[in-house]
TrEMBL record:
Name of the gene: ogt
Record flagged with keyword Cytoplasm: yes
Other comments on record: This enzyme catalyzes only one turnover and therefore is not strictly catalytic. According to one definition, an enzyme is a biocatalyst that acts repeatedly and over many reaction cycles.
GO term, biological process aspect, one: methylation
Lineage: Bacteria, Bacillati, Bacillota, Clostridia, Eubacteriales
This protein's record includes keyword Nuclease: no
This protein's name: Methylated-DNA--protein-cysteine methyltransferase
Reactions listed under catalytic activity: a 6-O-methyl-2'-deoxyguanosine in DNA + L-cysteinyl-[protein] = S-methyl-L-cysteinyl-[protein] + a 2'-deoxyguanosine in DNA; a 4-O-methyl-thymidine in DNA + L-cysteinyl-[protein] = a thymidine in DNA + S-methyl-L-cysteinyl-[protein]
Subcellular location: Cytoplasm
Enzyme class (EC, first level): transferase
Length: 154
C-alpha cells in the first residue's frame, strides 16, 4: 500500500508519497492530481522526508539522504540520476545533461524526462535551465523554480 501525507511549505502544499521502502513522489498539491489508491498515513519515512525538505527550505541542507524509487522508463531514470549529480546552487542546461548521459542530441528527450520527474526538489529538476540561461519548463511553475534557485544561491 502506498502512503501519502500533505504538508504546508514555503512553496505551497506538498504531497509526499512512499511505498513502504522509499519515497515515490513529491509534488505540489495544486499542480498535480493524485492517481491511484493511497492511504493518508504519516509514516516515519514521510516524517523524515518533510524534515529534510524543511531543512532545505531553511537553508540548512544541501543534499538529501532518503531512499528514492521514482517510477519511469530506463531513460528517464538515467536522466533523473544525472540530475541528482548537479551540485547545490549550480545549474545545467538540457544539452549538458544530454552530454552527461552520453547522448548529446537528446536535449529534448532530457526535457521531457525532466518534466516527468515524480520527486521534485529531491531530484533537482529545478536546476536544469535553457541553453540561453533562461528558466524554462518547471512542473511547479517558473516562479517556484526561481524561488528554489534563489534559495540555493543565498
Amino acid at each position: 500500500m502506498r502512503n501519502i501525507f500533505y504538508y504546508n511549505t514555503m512553496i505551497g502544499e506538498l504531497g509526499i508519497e512512499e511505498n513502504g521502502l522509499a519515497i515515490t513522489k513529491v509534488f505540489l498539491v495544486d499542480k498535480d492530481i493524485e492517481k491511484g489508491p493511497s492511504e493518508k498515513n504519516e509514516t516515519e519515512l514521510l516524517k523524515e522526508a518533510i524534515k529534510q525538505l524543511n531543512e532545505y527550505f531553511d537553508g540548512k541542507r544541501k543534499e538529501f539522504n532518503l531512499p528514492l524509487a521514482p517510477k519511469g522508463t530506463e531513460f528517464q531514470k538515467k536522466v533523473w540520476n544525472t540530475l541528482k549529480e548537479i551540485p547545490f546552487g549550480e545549474t545545467r542546461s538540457y544539452g549538458e545533461i544530454a552530454k552527461l548521459i552520453g547522448n548529446e542530441k537528446a536535449s529534448r528527450a532530457v526535457g521531457m524526462a525532466n518534466n516527468k520527474n515524480p520527486i521534485m526538489i529531491i531530484i533537482p529538476c529545478h536546476r536544469v535551465i535553457g541553453a540561453n540561461g533562461k528558466l524554462v519548463g518547471y512542473a511547479g511553475g517558473i516562479d517556484i523554480k526561481e524561488k528554489l534557485l534563489n534559495l540555493e544561491k543565498n
